[in-house]
Predict the structure.
Amino acid sequence: MRARVTSFLIAIVLWCILSYTVSVPYPHEVFIKFVELLIYPEPILGKTLVQHALSSILRVLVASLIAFSIAIPLGILCGWFKAIREVVVPIVEVLRPIPPIAWIPLAYIVFAPLPNTVYVSQLFIVFVGAFFPCFVSVFDYARNTPNELIEMAKVFNANDLAILRHIVIPYSVQGILTGIRIGLGVGWMCIIAAEMLATSGSGLGYFIMVMYEVGGRTTEIVCGIAMIGIIGYLMNYLLLKVERMIPWR
Amino acid sequence: MALVIKDLKKSYGNLKVLDGVSFNVKDSEFVCVIGRSGCGKTTLLKIIAGIERADSGEIIFNGRIGFVFQEDRLLPWKTALENVCFSLELLGIKDYERAKKLLEFVGLKGFENYYPKQLSTGMRQRVAFARALAIDPDLLLMDEPFANLDAQTREKMQEELLKLVKDKTVVFVTHSIDEAIYLADKIIVLTPRPARVLKEIEIELEKPRDRTSKEFMKLKRDINLLLSNLV
């Protein structure tokens, strides 16, 4: 607890030094603005910080859910079936190092025929960001399922399906939860970046960008950044709690 | 004859592990296979269990096999009861009542809902026993199941094992001479790798055996001599 207080105080001092030297607002200014923005809509976009946060969160959740529902089963199948692994993993390894943001221009072109191009493109970027960490985590667990347990099941006449169901999948639960946590984290970074690049009407990234464009409103910008940080932290924290709830660990 | 093993040969690459192993196991007989560590005892059991293939030779056996490993190999995400039930489930029978009875049978009544990590090493090995016994096996294969236990628990478990498997056909692998003499109706002594059957010794002492009796000690000396004379 004492260490936490110390680290908090050091952060505040550093922040003040920063504010003194460059054009970053002081902590107390940001704090007051932050509380204000939580309650009253910011006049240019007509939305509170909470509303912006909610639209960003919603986008991340929708896109991540799609990403996870493909990454988890695929990761398990790749971990368990060599034939699938040998086809899928090389493709993944080539696509994985590409920063999700790099797909944005192409996404706009590809999704242009759709009525909600921007929205779909944003979802796509988050999908790309959330997919790979989740896939890698699940795959890694599934592939490293202890051979002793598989051998035990075989001794008792288990077929492949039973081994998958009783051993590989439960063993991978830890990897699934970690994958979801990291995937959401990356997805969260991606949505902010994606929102900054196009008119989306709402969202924390969009909010920050507009505050910049109307004339460098640094206090609002820092409020937006703080909100991004707080939500990212809370998501990670909550999912860590869920991971610790596994009763057999 | 419950189990006939004829001239089993097995190599891993250039490493010859089994070099013509043959022996028979009668119905309800408790056979201990002993030999130095790494002589191929485990490979032999795996071949009998059907999860490894011999290069040549023959195994004649008809029936259900239960297996107890050196490590408990329980599924960490299943409770004690679910672990026992696992072997039954694989046969398509989800009989929690039977699993419960077996846990009671191995002395773990009241621990049904414990996860393996909450149980001691000895208790976990009992769960593994119950899992093997749950399917009512015609042949029970045991691969040094007590090797990871402390000396006292080990002797106690040996005592209990004899009560639990009274009429079962058992092939029990160990490198402990003492354990083999205490448990076995017949001891198969293997040569160091590549393994061949060096000697079959029928133990006619009445069970439960007294480890301090003259006959017991004599057997122990003889077998020890036999094993230590091998190069």
User: Anything to note?
Assistant: Chain A touches chain B through 19 residues (CB under 8 Å).
